[in-house]
Amino acid sequence: MRSQRDSRAQVQSDKNARPKDVILKILLATEGQPQRSQTLVSACALLGATDNSARTALTRLREAGLVEAIGRGEYRLGQAARPLAADVARWRSGEARVRAWVGGWIVVHTGALPRSDRAALRVRERALNLLGLRELEPGLAIRPDNLADDLSAIRRRLYGLGLDPAAAVFSTDNLDDTRVAAAPQLWTPRRLEARYREQIDRLQTWSATRHRLDHDQAARESYWLGDRAIRELVFDPLLPGAMIDTQLRSDFTDLALRFDRLGQTIWQLRAPHADAAIAS
Known about the structure:
Blueprint: H1 4-12, H2 19-29, E1 35-36, H3 37-46, H4 51-63, E2 67-71, E3 74-77, H5 82-88, E4 105-109, H6 118-130, E5 134-137, E6 140-144, H7 151-160, E7 168-172, H8 177-182, H9 189-209, H10 215-234, H11 246-279
Antiparallel strand pairs: 1-3, 2-3, 4-6, 4-7, 5-6
Helix pairs in contact: 2-3, 3-4, 3-11, 9-11, 10-11
């Protein structure tokens, strides 16, 4: 098991967080519950941002429609952020997101789409990655057809996440043997399993020693550790049991859910004192 010293060094190696990211992640984690501006600014400050940069980020997020004010000094996710936020939140459903795999594939053909618009290309790649699609060959991305959603729902998700509707999204049971044999390594399953084990080790080690930390340090470290774990699960390709240890993935998901609840409790205990400090 990872030593306490190694775990703490790993957490403390992070750079200061971007206020924009902190604000959006907190609003997403609180599942629609409005948050006071003092709480958001305090969280950014704890993670290394200045009060001024946090307030500037909040203003810019509001102007972009990513957050919205719903009362005096209270904010929630804005309309522009909700489609992506809803998709990101799917990680909480764990193994309910998949079904038994019978050998078919979801295929997305993007070969006819332009690649000169870098912003559009980043949005396209994010949409494909969120659904675990990997490029088998130029312009052709695939994944096992084992998601609980049917093809129509998968197509709507991809388009809703920013994939150009001109991209063809379809399923097939007729990939040739050469491509079927090559496909699993697109996701490097053994590396994925190693990351599950590493995350489980890190979260368990930290949870067992958190009582030695003061409130601020515990809040700071729980944010970084939880953020890493959740990102891993948000972008997990949800491979079928024929390719990966699904029980290990389920164990990691269950632990991440418990850690997320623990992290929220830690932040809630800190919040009244932090708000008072910001207001004074």
